[in-house]
C-alpha cells in the first residue's frame, strides 16, 4: 500500500494534470482514508511503528511480541527533575521521533496538552510504545506536581517497573518520597537515574547518600560519573569496566564510544572503577545467596575474573526482589547517559510474566484486564486505557465489566502514542491498550470476557484460594485492587456565564470527573451553588482552563478555600449526663469516655469499648453510640472542620430503661465535644 502511495506521489509531481476516471478517484480516496488511521499525523515521527528504514516488520512481531520481551515501565520523580526530557530522549534514540523536543519550547511528545506546554510541566500521564534492541517498551510519563499525585498512583497500579529520576544537585525531594512510597505500595522494582549531572552543584555522592538515608534503600552503583557540573562528559560502566564518552561535537548525543579501561591510559580511573566493582560484588553477594555461593566458590581470590553476565544476572534478581536499586547517572538535557539507561530497563526490570499476580490462575487464559484511565475525545468519545493481564482483546469484542455488572462492546482497539493512536487488530496479555466504545467503564473497573467467565473464575478462586479469598459474593472476589482516591484539599464555587449554560457546565464537569477521579463536584445545600473540590490550587486552575478551552464555557470561580482537618494531641477523659423528660417518659443517660490521638492516620474515629460496657450492650444502643461519635467528629472546635486521627474509648455507660437511642447519641456527642473543648492543644492540618 505504501509503495502504491509513493508511486502516486511521484507520478503527481511529474504530470501536472492526472486524467483518471471517477472509479479510480474513489479507489484512491478509499486507500488514503484507510492509511489515515495508521499514519500518526501532526508530529515529526521517524517512521510508522513497525518500519525501520524501508524494511517492514511482521505486524504480529511489532504489536504482540513474546511476553518475555515486554517492559511496562513508568517515569516518576519530583517536579522538574527531568522526567519528560528523559522520555523525549528515549523516544528519539529508539527511532520514534526525528528531532529532540524541549520542554521550554513546548514541543515534546508526551506533554501535548496546551496547559502543559504553556506551563512547562506534566499535568496528565501520557503513554508511548517503542522498540529497543528487540524489546517492546510501554512507557508512561507521569506528573511530578503534588496536585496530580493520583495520576502517578493509577499508573503505578498497572506497571511492572519504574525509573525514578533524581535531580543530582537536589537528591531526594518532597514528591520523590511520595512517589517512592506509592511504588513501595504496589511492590514495583525500580531503577534510579541521577539526572542533571551537568548542572552546577550536582553531586553524585550527595544524591546517592540521600537515596540511602531518606528512602531507606540500598543503592547499587552501576555507573560512576566522569566529572560533575560543567565538567561532566560521560560515565564509567562499573559492571563492564568501560568508559562511555559522548562526542562533544554531536548535537543529538547519538554518537558515543565505549572504551575499556586500561592500566596504560587510565590508571587512576581503572583503580577507582575496580574498587567500585568489588564493592558492588560484595554488596550483591550479601543480598543474593546464589551469587554469594558463586563468588565464594569460583572467584573468591580475584573478583576481576567474574564475568559481567553473571553479575548482571545477580543484580537483576536483587532488583526484582526489591532488596536494592541499581543507580545510573547522566544528563538528559545534554544527551548523555540515556542509551545505557534504556539498556538497564531491558536488562534489570521485569517482564509481565515475572510479576506475581495471584488472580491469574483463576482465569485460565480468559480475558482479565483493569481499566486505569479514561480520556474524552470529541470525535471518538470515551477512550479507556487498559492493562491486559491475561487473554486477548480485539475490536468488536464484547466484554463484561465486573464492577458495573454490565456488558459493553469494544468498537476499536488502539495502541497509544501520546496524543496519536494507531489502530491495531489485537493485543495480548502483558500490554497496555487503548479502547474505544466503552461508555460505562470507569477508572478501577475490572474487565472479563463474559459474565460466565467471571463466575467460573470466582469459583476457581474459592476452590483454589480457600478461605483467604472468600468474600461476600462471587463478584467481589474478582475485583482487582483499584485506585485509592484521596480526599480533596481545596474547594471553591463555580458558576456558568448564565443559567441557560448550567446544563453544559454539568456535562463538562461530568466528563472531567470521569477522566480525573480526584476532582469532586457537589451541590451546596444552603446556597444551591456548584462546589468544585480538587487537590490544589493548580489542579482547580487547570480544570477551569480546560472547561474554557475544551467546552467553550467562560465560568467564574469563587474564592479558594482550604479543606482543613483537625485532630487532638492529648488524651482527655470526660463524663456527661443527659436527663430529659418528654411527656410522661424520662430519658436518662450517663456516659464516661476518653478521646485520645492515634499514631496511624484514620479518617474515621477508632471506637473501643471497655469490657463491662460491651458485655450486655444491645445492638441498637451500640449503633446510637457510634452515630453520636461520628456526628461529633464532623465539626471540630477550632474551625468547624472534621476531626480525624482520634480514638474514642467508652469506659462506662448507664442507660435508664425506656431511654431512646436519639438521647443516647446526643449524650455521647455532647461528651466528645466537651473533651475537645477542654483540650486546647488542637492543631489544624491540610489533608494532602
Automatic annotation (TrEMBL):
InterPro entries hit by this protein: EFG_II (IPR041095), EFG_III (IPR009022), EFG_III/V (IPR035647), EFTu-like_2 (IPR004161), G_TR_CS (IPR031157), P-loop_NTPase (IPR027417), Ribosomal_Su5_D2-typ_SF (IPR020568), Ribsml_uS5_D2-typ_fold_subgr (IPR014721)
Keyword flag Signal: no
Keyword tags: GTP-binding, Mitochondrion, Nucleotide-binding, Protein biosynthesis
Domain Tr-type G: 68-353
Gene Ontology process terms (BP): mitochondrial translation; ribosome disassembly
Domain of life where this protein originates: Eukaryota
GO MF, one annotated term: GTP binding
UniProt xrefs under SUPFAM superfamilies: EF-G C-terminal domain-like, P-loop containing nucleoside triphosphate hydrolases, Ribosomal protein S5 domain 2-like, Translation proteins
GO cellular component: mitochondrial matrix
Claim: Protein transport is one of the keywords in the record: no
UniProt xrefs under Pfam families: EFG_III, EFG_IV, GTP_EFTU, GTP_EFTU_D2
Record-linked PANTHER family: RIBOSOME-RELEASING FACTOR 2, MITOCHONDRIAL (PTHR43261:SF1), TRANSLATION ELONGATION FACTOR G-RELATED (PTHR43261)
Protein name: Elongation factor G2
Originating organism: Acinonyx jubatus (Cheetah)
Amino acid at each position: 500500500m505504501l509503495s502504491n502511495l509513493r508511486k502516486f506521489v511521484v507520478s503527481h509531481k511529474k504530470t501536472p494534470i492526472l486524467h483518471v476516471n471517477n472509479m479510480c478517484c474513489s479507489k484512491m480516496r478509499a486507500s488514503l482514508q484507510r492509511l489515515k488511521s495508521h499514519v500518526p499525523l501532526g508530529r515529526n515521527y521517524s517512521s510508522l511503528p513497525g518500519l525501520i528504514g524501508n524494511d517492514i516488520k511482521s505486524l504480529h512481531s511489532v504489536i504482540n511480541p513474546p511476553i518475555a520481551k515486554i517492559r511496562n515501565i513508568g517515569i516518576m520523580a519530583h517536579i522538574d527533575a527531568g522526567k519528560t526530557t528523559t522520555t523525549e530522549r528515549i523516544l528519539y534514540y529508539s527511532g520514534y521521533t526525528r528531532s529532540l523536543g524541549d520542554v521550554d519550547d513546548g514541543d515534546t511528545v508526551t506533554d501535548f496538552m496546551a496547559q502543559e506546554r504553556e506551563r512547562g510541566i506534566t499535568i496528565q500521564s501520557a503513554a508511548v510504545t517503542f522498540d529497543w534492541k528487540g524489546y517492546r517498551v510501554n512507557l508512561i510519563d507521569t506528573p511530578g506536581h503534588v496536585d496530580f499525585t493520583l495520576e502517578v498512583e493509577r499508573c503505578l497500579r498497572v506497571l511492572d517497573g519504574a525509573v525514578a529520576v533524581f535531580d543530582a544537585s537536589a537528591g531526594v525531594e518532597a514528591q520523590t518520597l511520595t512517589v517512592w512510597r506509592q511504588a513501595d505500595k504496589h511492590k514495583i522494582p525500580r531503577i534510579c537515574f541521577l539526572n542533571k549531572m551537568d548542572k552546577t552543584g550536582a553531586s553524585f555522592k550527595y544524591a546517592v547518600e540521600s537515596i540511602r538515608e531518606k528512602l531507606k534503600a540500598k543503592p547499587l552503583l552501576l555507573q560512576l560519573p566522569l566529572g560533575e557540573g560543567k565538567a561532566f562528559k560521560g560515565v564509567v560502566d562499573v559492571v563492564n569496566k568501560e568508559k562511555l564518552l559522548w562526542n562533544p561535537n554531536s548535537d543529538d548525543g547519538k554518537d558515543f564510544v565505549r572504551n575499556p579501561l586500561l592500566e596504560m591510559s587510565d590508571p587512576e580511573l581503572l583503580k577507582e572503577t575496580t574498587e567500585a566493582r568489588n564493592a558492588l560484588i560484595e554488596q550483591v553477594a550479601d543480598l543474593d545467596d546464589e551469587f554469594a555461593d558463586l563468588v565464594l566458590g569460583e572467584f573468591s581470590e580475584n573478583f576481576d575474573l567474574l564475568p559481567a553476565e553473571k553479575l548482571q544476572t545477580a543484580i537483576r534478581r536483587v532488583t526484582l526482589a526489591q532488596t536494592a536499586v541499581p543507580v545510573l547517572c547522566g544528563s538528559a538535557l545534554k544527551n548523555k547517559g540515556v542509551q545505557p539507561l534504556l539498556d538497564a530497563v531491558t536488562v534489570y526490570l521485569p517482564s509481565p510474566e515475572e510479576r506475581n499476580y495471584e488472580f491469574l490462575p483463576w482465569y485460565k487464559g480468559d480475558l482479565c484486564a483493569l481499566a486505569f484511565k479514561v480520556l474524552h475525545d470529541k470525535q471518538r468519545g470515551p477512550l479507556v486505557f487498559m492493562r491486559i493481564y491475561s487473554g486477548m482483546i480485539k475490536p468488536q469484542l464484547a466484554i463484561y465489566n465486573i464492577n458495573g455488572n454490565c456488558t459493553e462492546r469494544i468498537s476499536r482497539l488502539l495502541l497509544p502514542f501520546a496524543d496519536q493512536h494507531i489502530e491495531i487488530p489485537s493485543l495480548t496479555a502483558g500490554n497496555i491498550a487503548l479502547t474505544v466504545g466503552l461508555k460505562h467503564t470507569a477508572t478501577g473497573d475490572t474487565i472479563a470476557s463474559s459474565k460466565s467467565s467471571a463466575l467460573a473464575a470466582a469459583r476457581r478462586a474459592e476452590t483454589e484460594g480457600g478461605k483467604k479469598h472468600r468474600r461476600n459474593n462471587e463478584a467481589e472476589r474478582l475485583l482487582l485492587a483499584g485506585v485509592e482516591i484521596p480526599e480533596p484539599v481545596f474547594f471553591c464555587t463555580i458558576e456558568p456565564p448564565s443559567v441557560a449554560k448550567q446544563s453544559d457546565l454539568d456535562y463538562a464537569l461530568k466528563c472531567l470527573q470521569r477522566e480525573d477521579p480526584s476532582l469532586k463536584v457537589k451541590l451546596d445545600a444552603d446556597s444551591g451553588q456548584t462546589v468544585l473540590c480538587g487537590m490544589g490550587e493548580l489542579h482547580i486552575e487547570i480544570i477551569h482552563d480546560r472547561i474554557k478551552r475544551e467546552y467553550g464555557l467562560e465560568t467564574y470561580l469563587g474564592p479558594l478555600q482550604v479543606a482543613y482537618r483537625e485532630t487532638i494531641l492529648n488524651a482527655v477523659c470526660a463524663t456527661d449526663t443527659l436527663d430529659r423528660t418528654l411527656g410522661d417518659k424520662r430519658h436518662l443517660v450517663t456516659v464516661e469516655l476518653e478521646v485520645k490521638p492515634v499514631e496511624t492516620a484514620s479518617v474515621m474515629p477508632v471506637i473501643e469499648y471497655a469490657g463491662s460496657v460491651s458485655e450486655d450492650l444491645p445492638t441498637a444502643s451500640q449503633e446510637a453510640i457510634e452515630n453520636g461519635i461520628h456526628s461529633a467528629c464532623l465539626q471540630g472546635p477550632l474551625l468547624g472542620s472534621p476531626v480525624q486521627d482520634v480514638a474514642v474509648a467508652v469506659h462506662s455507660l448507664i442507660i435508664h430503661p425506656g431511654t431512646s437511642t436519639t438521647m443516647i447519641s446526643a449524650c455521647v456527642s455532647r461528651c466528645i465535644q466537651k473533651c475537645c473543648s477542654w483540650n486546647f492543644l488542637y492543631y489544624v492540618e491540610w489533608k494532602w
